[in-house]
Specification:
Layout lengths: L4 E3 L4 E3 L4 E5 L5 E5 H5 L4 E3 L6 E5 L17 E2 L14
Parallel strand pairs: 1-6
Antiparallel strand pairs: 2-3, 2-7, 3-4, 5-6
Length: 89
């Protein structure tokens, strides 16, 4: 069972680790890479303990995503706003 569920927007991009991270209670960081997100993975693991979290995100938003720019420790991008299909008559 997952320790917690965390929205991707609450995670931070770590340039050094090349992964989205979130603080673990043990003092280390839960980590999930962009490649894992592209593959549909939703589990971020802590390399220092046995805990893991479930990452809540829309896999379609990360199919062709590039690593965030702007230096290290960048917040994950919010999902683009959903615009409903408008039927024109």
């Amino acid at each position: 069972m997952s320790y917690d569920e965390v929205e991707i927007e609450d995670m931070t991009w770590n340039e050094k680790l090349q992964a989205y991270t979130y603080p673990c209670p043990c003092g280390d960081l839960f980590q999930i890479t962009l490649e894992e997100l592209r593959a549909g993975e939703e589990i971020a693991r802590c390399p220092s303990c046995s805990l893991y979290i479930t990452v809540i995100y829309d896999p379609e938003d990360y199919e062709n995503a590039e690593p965030p720019t702007g230096g290290s420790d960048t917040k994950a991008p919010a999902a683009p706003p959903h615009t409903p299909e408008v039927e024109v008559h």
